[in-house]
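Why should sequence recovery work at all? Because a backbone constrains its sequence more than one might expect. Tight turns favour small or flexible residues, buried strands favour hydrophobic ones, and helices have their own preferences. The token representation captures these environments compactly. In the example below, the structure is given first.
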């Protein structure tokens, strides 16, 4: 969850590293730090608590204090880190980079070293000095590397290999050494926490925790696998496998456009990403839905018809917002492909002994493709011989690389920590997959597939209509932003959208919210209803419409306030709810794509009105690469 960038080349590293950290800040913003090596092989370390802006302000003060000449720090080799705290509070001493006791090595790290306490005790017993003590596990990495280089006289890469043999846990590590100043050494341990190597123009190389950090500089990238080490020099990179042998690795050309990751004219990334959705949905559908034939073409799904026919059960695993998409997937796959579907959190699945066989299909949904619990679930499914399909947004991410089949979300880079466009894009992917499975398995009639796919093609335009109507959200936010709790109700395929609405509000506004199936209202939550608890009810025209309306009536009978999300043309709902937001008519299975949009806009406007940091809510991170 921490962000890492490193540079070695012929340019000044500082501006490249700071710009890279800006693009990585969504991964964590508890502290930021940089380390550069200057022409005299001396390290320069700067670290600040809190957001990157604190670090850049401190650097600017340094520049000004030197009469504003040149850069605050010079050097053509360096690295930076933005932290999401796991071990130790967000303090300056816990901020990365961490250095060895003799200032010979500096290290940045993403992950968790599970045996760091034991390693630290061993080092202390050997007389190692933890004067610059932090509470982090990472500090041990710097000590061990330095020990192996200065005491055991190993090269930096040999020291890194030795280190990998000593540590347990998950780690993406990047290290610099004063004695080998023309190198960056990086390593990856376990499948959590990616390491991507970028090939720059001429004599420069990059390393990062993820693609967007270096995308403005290069599209040519290579991904490290677990146990591998890479040594970067100005001239290129050498890769080593787990056993220390030199290997060649594939270069991937990344097509994502860096420009689309920029904020454009919007105030927040999240706002931009909400408005990106018509385009993201178009891109996700494009080339895949054949309305005439009533079939779906999924380019990275290469199972044979016999393999698909043999599937007996589907398990969907995911976390957070992606888990809500998974719950919608259950409705879609059960109805269209007539397969039983179970939906589980990655974090729960991995510690059960789930009943999975080679005739089961595991669908992993993950925007980032790096969520450690979801990756562990994939590993468990593979271990039990099941086939795995990953629904992923980030091209080349771990979940994409280890899956047997991939369905990309095509949402483009999502920077706002709270997921928006990746959610609706993953629901589109699930519609496509459900139709695909239904057709290949011969249980979905061509006519039904045609009409659903035709409706799907119209969805981006309908989504654009929904988000164009945005004034109402600010009005509601003005009236309700100070409420302490919200209740979200939905039923059937829109119940997961109620959960997602509640999650969005919690994440962004720090307001307590609960999502409930509307039918469960009377079994408990109704006791909460009074005039201080706003209720958001999704009451679109589908087969459970009447049931949701009766839940609205139960709320109104107890003086509750109701915002209904209803279908355009519903003339009755206005008399029942206090406020109505309409979404256009679509196929009942596609309503979640449209009803999710008011959920996103409502929480966005409430968060803005409450003065919250919309793009980087407190305590959260975009991709959770630790348990
Ligand atoms: C974090 C993010 C959520 C996201 C979840 C799963 O908790 O804050 O927005 O839904 O991780 O992420 P994934 O990348 O696996 O979809």
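From this structural description, the recovered sequence reads:
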């Amino acid at each position: 969850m921490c962000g890492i960038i490193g540079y070695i080349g012929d340019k000044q590293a500082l501006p490249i590293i700071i710009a890279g950290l800006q693009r990585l800040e969504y991964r964590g913003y508890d502290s930021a730090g940089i380390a550069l090596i200057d022409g005299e092989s001396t390290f320069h370390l700067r670290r600040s608590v809190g957001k990157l802006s604190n670090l850049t302000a401190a650097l600017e003060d340094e520049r000004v204090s030197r009469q504003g000449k040149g850069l605050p720090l010079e050097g053509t080799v360096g690295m930076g880190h933005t932290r999401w705290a796991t071990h130790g509070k967000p303090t300056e001493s816990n901020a990365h980079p961490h250095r060895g006791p003799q200032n010979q090595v500096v290290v940045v790290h993403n992950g968790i070293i599970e045996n760091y306490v034991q390693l630290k005790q061993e080092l202390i017993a050997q007389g190692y000095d933890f004067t610059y003590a932090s509470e982090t596990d990472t500090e041990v990495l710097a000590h061990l590397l330095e020990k192996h280089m200065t005491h055991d006289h190993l090269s930096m890469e040999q020291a890194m290999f030795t280190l990998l043999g000593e540590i347990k846990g998950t780690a993406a590590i990047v290290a610099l050494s004063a004695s080998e100043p023309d190198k960056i050494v990086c390593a990856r341990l376990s499948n959590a926490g990616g390491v991507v190597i970028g090939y720059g123009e001429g004599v420069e190389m990059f390393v990062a925790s993820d693609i967007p950090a270096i995308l403005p500089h290069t599209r040519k990238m290579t991904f490290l696998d677990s146990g591998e080490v890479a040594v970067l020099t100005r001239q290129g990179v050498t890769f080593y496998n787990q056993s220390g042998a030199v290997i060649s690795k594939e270069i991937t050309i990344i097509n994502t456009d860096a420009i689309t990751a920029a904020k454009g004219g919007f105030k927040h990334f999240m706002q931009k990403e909400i408005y990106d959705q018509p385009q993201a949905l178009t891109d996700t559908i494009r080339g895949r839905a054949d309305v005439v034939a009533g079939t779906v073409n999924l380019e990275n799904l290469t199972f044979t018809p016999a393999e698909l026919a043999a599937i007996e059960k589907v398990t969907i695993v995911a976390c957070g917002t992606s888990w809500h998409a998974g719950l919608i997937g259950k409705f879609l796959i059960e109805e269209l492909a007539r397969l039983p579907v179970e939906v589980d959190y990655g974090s729960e699945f991995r510690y059960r002994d789930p009943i999975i066989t080679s005739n089961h299909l595991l669908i992993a949904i993950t925007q980032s493709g790096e969520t450690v619990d979801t990756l562990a679930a994939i590993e468990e499914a593979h271990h039990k011989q099941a086939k795995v399909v990953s629904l992923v947004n980030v091209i080349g991410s771990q979940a994409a690389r280890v899956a047997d089949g991939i369905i990309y979300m095509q949402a483009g880079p999502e920077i706002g920590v709270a997921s928006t466009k990746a959610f609706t894009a993953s629901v589109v992917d699930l519609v496509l997959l459900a139709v695909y499975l239904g057709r290949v398995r011969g249980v979905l009639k061509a006519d039904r597939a045609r009409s659903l796919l035709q409706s799907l093609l119209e969805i981006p335009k309908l989504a654009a209509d929904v988000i164009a109507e945005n004034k109402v959200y600010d009005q509601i936010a003005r009236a309700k932003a100070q409420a302490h709790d919200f209740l979200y109700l939905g039923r059937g395929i829109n119940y997961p959208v109620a959960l997602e609405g509640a999650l969005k509000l919690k994440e962004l506004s720090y307001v307590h919210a609960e999502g409930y199936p509307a039918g469960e209202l009377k079994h408990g939550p109704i006791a909460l209803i009074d005039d201080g608890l706003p209720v958001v009810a999704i009451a679109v025209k589908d087969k459970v419409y009447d049931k949701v309306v009766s839940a609205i009536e139960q709320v109104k009978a107890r003086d509750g306030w109701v915002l209904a999300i209803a279908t355009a043309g519903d003339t009755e709902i206005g008399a029942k709810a206090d406020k109505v937001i309409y979404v256009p008519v679509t196929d009942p299975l596609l309503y979640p794509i449209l009803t999710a949009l008011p959920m996103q806009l409502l929480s966005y406007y409430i968060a803005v009105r409450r003065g919250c940091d919309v793009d980087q809510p407190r305590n959260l991170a975009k991709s959770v690469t630790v348990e």
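A few observations help interpret the result. The CA atoms of residues 348 and 373 lie 8 Å apart.
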